[in-house]
Amino acid sequence: FIESEQIKVSNLQQEDTVLSAFISPYKAEMDQQMNVKIAESKHDFLVARPGSNLMNWMADVVFTNQTKNVKMSKPVFCLLNTGGIRSSIGIGPVYLGDLYKLMPFDNTIIWARLPIKELESIELYLSETGGEPISNITMTNGVIQFNGFDKTEAEDFWVITSDYLYNGGDRMDFFQKSIETVETNKLIRDVVIEEAKIQGQLINDE
Fold first, then answer.
1. What's the CA gap between 142 and 123, in Å, rounded?
2. What's the CA gap between 113 and 96, in Å, rounded?
3. Which of 74, 68, 85, 103 is nearest to 184 (CA)?
């Protein structure tokens, strides 16, 4: 013999109504915040390997933000991950909510200094994955070239990345060979929002 308790549907509906009434003001406030216009876009920004305008834009804004007031005496570039970009940006107004969808994770920015021999590991990784968001380097036929630096004369280089990738996310194991790190404690999402506001109209770099 199995005992069971009969729950009236009307009671459940009443509880749901009470909960909705409690949540409603918070949801309305959140919706209002997410509908704040940040910038404009004249292009569709999409993700596509080996590279795309959205991948380039994400890496470029992080690189630009982080190097504005830095005198670069060594090669520096930005490396993010394609999987970390979780949405696209369409033509028209760009709202705060769009950028939260683009980067929903609370990942922070880390600078990692690597010995020059690890550049080969990054080249191999990018070749195997088919492409990731990069800025301030070019990759031709699987070979990376620094912008403004001769890599044959470099002993090491800096990579601006996320804490997730630095800690081995997406199998970026080469970061374990870092010889120096700088933790900014700055969210990538906050940087994306900040730079989008500065641009006003998102810069399209195919």
1. 6
2. 33
3. 68
| Residue from 107, 111, 70, 98 nearest 197 by CA | 98
The C-alpha atoms of residue 171 and residue 186 are separated, in whole angstroms, by 23
d(CA 79, CA 178): 14
Tokens of 175: 């970061």
Bridge-based pairing of strands 37-41 and 92-95 is antiparallel
Q: What is the pLDDT of residues 59-108, one digit of tens each?
A: 999 999 999 988 889 999 999 999 999 999 999 999 999 999 999 999 99
Locus of tokens 């009434």: 21
Span 136-166, pLDDT tens digits? 999 999 999 999 999 999 999 999 999 999 9
Q: What is the CA radius of gyration of the chain?
A: 22
Structure token pair of residue 201: 């109209």
Cis before 50 (ω within 30):
yes
